[in-house]
Amino acid sequence: MGKKDLEYENLIVERQKRLTEILGVSGFEDKVVSAIIEEIKDVVDEYWINSNGSLLAVMKGKDEQSAVLLDAHTDEIGFIISHITDKGFAYFTLLGGFLRRYPWYISSSGIFACDSHFYVEFLI
Q: What keywords does the record list, in alphabetical order (predicted)?
């Protein structure tokens, strides 16, 4: 791997890290979408946000036969804390629907809670 390849790979890793560290739980993806727009606005021919809040972008190719579709989620699994007991146990409600089908997915996971005033890490 040459120096330019390594620099390009590092750029991709840094960009991916920056984008995935933005908080964007279901229904609150605005910051993620804005960051993606900043990344793509100078390289796509057009972009827009549809009525569902999805970001769509077009980068025209040489011909229609070589069209490629890229698709990705901008949201992440999220919760709303509904109650915290005197002993510090948190009860929460899911945002989105993924975990209703796969509840074991978060078992023993480290997660965090935040709002505009605080940030707390805890274990499920």
A: Hydrolase, Metal-binding
Q: How far apart are CA 14 and CA 85, in angstroms?
A: 39
> What is the span of the domain harbouring residue 9?
3-66
pTM: predicted TM-score of the whole model, two decimal places: 0.71
Read off the DSSP letter of residue 105: G
DSSP tag of 64:
G
Query: Do 53 and 90 reside in the same domain of the chain?
Result: no
